[in-house]
Amino acid sequence: MSALWILFSLAAFSILHSALASLGAKALARQWLGQRTADGIYRLLYNVIATLTVVPPLILAVLLPDGAPVWHLPTPLLFITIPLQLVALAAMAISLWRVDLPRFIGLRQFFRLWAGEAEPRDPPGVDLADLHLAGRIHRLCRPPSSTTCTT
Question: Is position 60 within any domain?
């Protein structure tokens, strides 16, 4: 039963996350808030909402354990898996640095709006090919229509 609560909360997070990421939701925000305000705060609000809504599934996964562990690694394998986890953590940190974390989470746009700049968004059409390796990796995990960042 615990697994169902965890799956339900994760499904709710996923649906809300996808709905807010849609072009329709962004267009609706621009209609309600005005383009300048929406461009300045949408990405930051999206990330705040995503952070707040991913917490319940994580808390449920900790508080509602459902029986025995799924697997147990023998100690010799830990000498392989722990360094791999550290490499993955370093790769994640590098990728966040490469994508310009303040822009990615919406802080840069929010501060541009706050400072009264006319255009809080980044210049449109940042080609991911300019990011070299990051652009090639991005194209492996995103549809071809999203190879140009506009928001």
Answer: yes
Number of structural domains the chain divides into: 1
According to DSSP, residue 24 is labeled: H
Residue with tokens 């994640």: 92
**Residue 83 sits in which domain range?**
2-120
The residue with tokens 């697994």 is 3
> What distances in angstroms separate CA 91 from CA 18, 86, 97, 98, 141, one per listed residue?
25, 9, 10, 10, 16
pTM, rounded to two decimals? 0.68
Mean pLDDT of the chain: 81
Residues 6+ apart with CB under 8 A from 100: 108
126's enclosing H/E stretch is strand 126-127
Tell me whether residue 98 is in a domain. yes
